[in-house]
Structure formats: C-alpha cells, structure tokens
Amino acid sequence: MELTPEQKQLVELATRVPVADIRTAKRVLEALIVDPFWLALESAPYDNEEVTKEDEAALAKADAEFARGETTPHEEILREFGIE
Predict the structure, then answer these.
(1) Fewer CB within 10 Å, N side or C side of the chain?
(2) 16 lies in a domain?
(3) In a domain, 22, yes or no
(4) Following DSSP, what letter does each residue of 14-59 receive, concatenated?
C-alpha cells in the first residue's frame, strides 16, 4: 500500500514522539479511527467475578449448540432487528 505524503509525514512524526508520550499519542490516534464503543470497552475495568457452576453449564450448553450448528446466523439477527 502506497502512503500519501500526509501519511508519510504522520509516520515520521510518530517516530519522534517521546517515549513517555507514546501511550497518549496512540490514544489520540485511536480516537480518530476507532468506534467509541470499542474504546469504552477497552478501558472498562476487568470483570473478576467468579464463574459459577451454573455459568460453566450454560457455557458448555452454548458450545454444544454451536458445534451442532444450532445457532442463528448474524444476517438473520440483523434482519430481525431491521438493521440489514
């Protein structure tokens, strides 16, 4: 992929960001190109709730249903909610 002159300049600028500011620069760039939902999800606190026996059973059931092909295709869900 050929970069535009502006993209080349941006890459060059990125190489000059001080190490202490790299994380901030990355977050600024991500904010320009990433869906805000995913940014919020990425910054959400880790869920450290214990997995119960009931959770394990539900996950095993879902895995088995998936393995048998008993799932609803993504396209069908979109149609159901009128998002096609």
Answers:
(1) N
(2) yes
(3) yes
(4) HHTS-GGGHHHHHHHHHHHHS-HHHHHHHHSPP--PPPPHHHHHHH
List pLDDT tens digits, range 6-15: 999 999 999 9
Sign of CA dihedral 57, 63, 67, 72: positive
**Length reported for the chain:** 84
Q: Per residue in 12-21, is it b (16+ CB within 10 Å) or e — as a string?
A: eeeeeeeeee
Q: How many domains does the chain have?
A: 1
pTM attached to this predicted model: 0.40
CA–CA gap between residue 82 and residue 56 (Å, rounded): 33
38-80: per-residue pLDDT in tens?
778 878 888 889 999 999 999 999 999 999 999 998 899 988 8
pLDDT given at position 43: 83
Distances (CA, A) of 49 to 28, 40, 55: 31, 20, 11
